[in-house]
């Protein structure tokens, strides 16, 4: 199980450090659950330093697929590993929607992340219209195959996939536990096909989309739901930590 908080474009350096310290203190040693937060890029090094001695892991919200060069505004994978990042969220629907992120760029980023020892949290998920038209499985299949083409993983821990139905992100509307399980089981088949049963069967598939303390236990209790990617509820230490507690109970 992995519970990861996506802080999006929230917090300044002071509040980010404070929130991370509070979460790190409250979770103590959450094993076997892993817990990560993904602050805005400019706060990564301060947050990483503040929780260095704790079990809280750090991730970034995006990165570029080149290692250096004239790419104004971009952040290289080595810059993330240098400040202590373990994870990087890739292909979040907000990046796809507002910044033109395409399956192909998500794929280049995912390959580069793994090459540098960063664990990509690759986000996939259908829009409401696509679900209503009965195309959710096709859309997610296309996204998973495209994002992961040529990604080489030696161990299940090298990669995380997050199923985030776009209609559930920040809307207060979640996928039902059955809807989540159905799509996660499908993603599991795709991962087994690509990486073989042992690795593909153990790669964590997170659910994301309005996961909160009140619905976490049911979602995390599904067979193929191996954790959560949490947006809004990760900005409050109590809410986030109660989702971590739900994950511990679901293991
Ligand atoms: C997200 O942004 O990845 C997310 C799941 O957001 P929220 O929990 O706010 O729906």
The structural class is alpha/beta
The count of β-strands is: 8
Tally of helical runs? 11
Stretches with pLDDT under 50, minimum 5 residues: none
Compressed to H and E, one letter per element, the order equals EHEHEHEHHEHHEHHEHEH
Q: Give the overall shape.
A: globular
Bound molecules: phosphoenolpyruvate
Radius of gyration: 17 Å
Average of pLDDT: 97
- In what range is the share of β-strand residues? 5-15%
Q: Could you describe the largest sheet, including whether it forms a barrel?
A: 8 strands, parallel, barrel
How many angstroms separate the termini?
7 Å
Ordered list of secondary-structure elements with their pairings:
Layout: E1 2-6, H1 13-27, E2 34-38, H2 44-50, E3 57-60, H3 77-82, E4 87-90, H4 93-99, H5 103-115, E5 119-124, H6 128-132, H7 136-148, E6 160-163, H8 177-195, H9 197-200, E7 204-208, H10 213-220, E8 227-230, H11 237-250
Parallel strand pairs: 1-2, 1-8, 2-3, 3-4, 4-5, 5-6, 6-7, 7-8
Helix pairs in contact: 1-11, 5-7, 7-8, 10-11
The chain binds phosphoenolpyruvate.
Describe this structure in words.
The structure is a single chain. The protein has 11 helices and 8 strands. The model has no long low-confidence stretch (mean pLDDT 97). Helix 7 (136-148) packs parallel to helix 8. It is an alpha/beta fold. Strands 1-2-3-4-5-6-7-8 form an 8-stranded parallel barrel, surrounded by 6 helices. The longest helix has 19 residues, at 177-195. It binds phosphoenolpyruvate (PEP). The site of phosphoenolpyruvate (PEP) has 13 residues, from strand 8.
């Amino acid at each position: 199980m992995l519970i990861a908080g996506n802080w999006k474009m929230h917090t300044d350096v002071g509040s980010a450090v404070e929130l991370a310290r509070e979460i790190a203190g409250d979770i103590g040693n959450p094993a076997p659950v892993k817990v990560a937060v993904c602050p805005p890029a400019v706060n990564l090094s301060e947050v990483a330093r503040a929780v260095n001695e704790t079990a809280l892991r750090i991730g970034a919200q995006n990165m570029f697929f080149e290692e250096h060069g004239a790419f104004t505004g971009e952040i290289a994978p080595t810059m993330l590993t240098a400040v202590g990042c373990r994870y990087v969220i890739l292909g979040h629907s907000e990046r796809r929607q507002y910044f033109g992120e395409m399956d192909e760029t998500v794929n280049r980023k995912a390959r580069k992340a793994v090459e540098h020892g960063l664990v990509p949290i690759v986000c996939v998920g259908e829009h409401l219209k696509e679900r209503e038209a009965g195309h959710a499985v096709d859309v997610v299949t296309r996204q998973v195959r495209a994002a992961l083409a040529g990604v080489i993983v030696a161990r299940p821990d090298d990669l995380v996939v997050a199923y985030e139905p776009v209609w559930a992100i920040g809307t207060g509307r979640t996928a039902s536990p059955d809807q989540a399980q159905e799509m996660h089981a499908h993603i599991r088949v795709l991962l087994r096909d690509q990486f073989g049963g042992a690795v593909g069967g153990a790669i964590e598939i997170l659910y994301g989309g309005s996961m909160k303390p009140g619905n976490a236990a049911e979602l995390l209790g599904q067979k193929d739901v191996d954790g959560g990617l949490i947006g809004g509820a990760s900005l409050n230490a109590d809410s986030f930590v109660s989702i971590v507690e739900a994950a511990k109970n679901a293991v």
